[in-house]
TrEMBL record:
Keywords: Hydrolase. Residues 31-295 form the Amidohydrolase-related domain. This is 2-pyrone-4,6-dicarboxylate hydrolase. InterPro entries: Amidohydro-rel (IPR006680), Aro_Compnd_Degr_Hydrolases (IPR052358), GLI/LigI (IPR047874), Metal_Hydrolase (IPR032466). It comes from Rhodoglobus vestalii. GO terms for molecular function: hydrolase activity. It comes from the Bacteria. It holds the Pfam family Amidohydro_2.
Length: 298
């Protein structure tokens, strides 16, 4: 047991403390648009209702990785292990010298004053998680109450779901009336052909809803063929980048929560980017223009 009283899960894989230096040089102004912090648990305790207990992963370690990978900025997404206590994420923003933005998790009873403080620190969105092994999703009205409160701030909603969730929640997701960012392409099954019906539904969702963006991130979570190429994920991500170049984002997902087989090398993940954004123009949109527009323009 650590001094914090928190014991990480027995099968927990710690993040790679010595990742490789990427061969690919990201363009100036690049943003890692999906990452997290965990604790440290003795300062920012984990939520009682959490479904996993991680290792610590601090702001110092996040910023060190940012600099090593040659990114300029981060978007820090509230980790589910912290529930709706955003203290650890907000602490990162406060220390970032305007080089970080945040995505929070809030409850319907969040006050305008709390939201205003988060906005001042750099929060620009809230996350709704539908992945049932990580959280217990709430009824639609729970989320609508939150959206009504964040809409005046110009925030967006980040959705984390799996393919079956999109089919079930299509009408609700299409009716939110605010920009949406979907995590990790809606987790397509890359063992299936590119033209499979589930991925086709996701493409249709983006085509029919011009406020929908997606992160073409986490090949390590989706791939069956594995590192270093993640070759089976490339056709899916490349299709999205090329059809929706102004609505895609990318991030490392550091410190890679709930990986069960192996921990990815963050340098290799950066080197994956040119395989899905194959021109300098697409790379600039993916890593610089799009995240800066979404997170630093208001």
């Amino acid at each position: 047991m650590t001094p914090t009283g928190f014991v990480k899960d027995a099968d927990w894989l710690d993040w790679d403390s010595n990742p490789s230096v990427p061969r690919f040089t990201v363009p100036a102004g690049a943003v890692d648009a999906h990452c997290h912090v965990f604790g440290p648990g003795d300062i920012f305790p984990f939520a009682p209702e959490r479904k996993y207990t991680p290792c610590d992963a601090s702001w110092q370690q996040l910023f060190a990785l940012r600099d090593m990978l040659r990114f300029e900025k981060n978007v820090v997404v509230q980790a589910t292990c912290h529930g709706a206590d955003n203290s650890a994420m907000l602490d990162v923003l406060a220390r970032s010298d305007d080089r970080a933005r945040g995505v929070a998790t809030v409850n319907p009873d969040v006050t305008p004053a709390e939201l205003a403080r988060m906005h001042e620190l750099g929060v620009r969105g809230v996350r709704f998680n539908y992945v049932k092994r990580l959280v217990d999703p709430k009824p639609d009205e729970y989320y609508r109450t939150i959206i009504d409160k964040i809409r005046p701030l110009g925030w967006h909603v980040v959705l984390y779901f799996e393919p079956s969730d999109l089919a079930e929640k299509w009408q609700f997701f299409s009716s939110l009336g605010v920009p949406i960012v979907v995590d990790h392409m809606g987790r397509p099954d890359v063992s299936r052909p590119l033209d499979n019906s589930e991925f086709g539904l996701f493409l249709r969702f983006m085509r029919e809803n011009e406020q929908v963006w997606t992160k073409v991130s986490c090949p390590d979570r989706l791939s069956i063929s594995g590192a270093p190429l993640y070759a089976d994920v490339i056709p899916f991500a490349k299709t999205i980048v090329e059809e929706f170049p102004d609505r895609v984002l990318w991030g490392t997902d550091w410190p890679h929560p709930n990986m069960k087989k192996e921990m990815p090398d963050d340098g290799i993940l950066v080197d994956y980017v040119p395989s899905i954004a194959t021109t300098a123009a697409l790379q600039s949109q993916l890593l610089v223009q799009n995240p800066n527009q979404l997170y630093w323009s208001n």
